[in-house]
Amino acid sequence: MENPILKITSLHKSFGANEVLKGIDLNVTKGQLVFMIGPSGSGKSTLLRCCNRLEEPSSGSILVDQEDITAAGADLNRIRQNIGMVFQHFNLYRHMSVLDNVTLALRKVQKLSKEEANTRGLDALKRVGLLEKASAFPDQLSGGQQQRVGIARSLALRPKVVLFDEPTSALDPELVGDVLKVMRELKDDGMTMVVVSHEMGFARAAADHVVFMDAGKIVEQGTPQQIFGAPTHARTQSFLARMS
Ligand code: ADP
Ligand code: MG
After folding, report:
1. Nearest atom in ligand 1 to 47's CA
2. pLDDT tens-digit profile of 150-200?
3. Ligand 2: distance of its center to the CA of 165 in Å?
4. Which ligand 1 atom sits closest to the C-alpha of 39?
5. In the structure, which protein residues have their CB atom closer than 6 angstroms to any atom of ligand 1?
6. Long-range contacts of range 178-185, CB-CB < 8 Å, 24 or more positions apart?
7. pLDDT at 1
8. pTM of the model
9. Which residue ranges of the chain lie beneath pLDDT 70?
10. How far apart are CA 8 and CA 165, in angstroms?
């Protein structure tokens, strides 16, 4: 079998006495879209944040394309280049143009020339349908457009996998569709993605695999048809009943 792009093994994370991740095992293969659901506080964000070392795992391992990112001396810059992250709040710099936001890490961290960074940045903006907004400022964009800039910012680093943490939760309902459409296009282009979201319609249409987390554990996982159509665990059933 093909080596997974992301391989999480026995991942534990505690904050003080609070064990938030209680042994997570998850493999994501190239081009897969894994969709994660679960109640608030179940550990979804912590899991994603451990994958690019925004949080330090307490134990366990995380391999990205066979490189152990939890190893002592792992290169955090390179890890964050390989694993893109898209957050609920896009945190764009308001005083910088869209293109400068997208190329900031390329210039400052990867030390690309301005010309090379701009070429990559424009390419990323094109992928999210915002080429014509390159010189606009974030305040001139809708929330949905700002989130697409956030996605372009991660794509510009040419990551091996992109993690999305509730990318549409802060958006007005009419703006959600555009962001999901961009995510769908990325998936169709072969991008490997892990998506935490409440957008079950998107999951049914685009996810290869659905994972249900509760209280720091993966309780159940399977195809969208299995998880949404015939969940076997009582906790999955009651969660989905509350969502619909
Ligand atoms: P979810 O994203 O599924 O809602 P989180 O991963 O955000 O869950 O949170 C899981 C648990 O970890 C919660 O109990 C939360 O309070 C706790 N937690 C998250 N981040 C921190 C932190 N930086 N310090 C202490 N506790 C945290
Ligand atoms: Mg969360």
Report:
1. 6
2. 999 999 999 999 999 999 999 999 999 999 999 999 999 999 999 999 999
3. 7
4. 3
5. 15, 20, 38, 40-46
6. 178/129, 178/144, 178/145, 178/148, 179/144, 179/147, 179/148, 179/151, 182/127, 182/128, 182/129, 182/148, 182/151, 183/151, 185/127
7. 63
8. 0.96
9. 1
10. 17
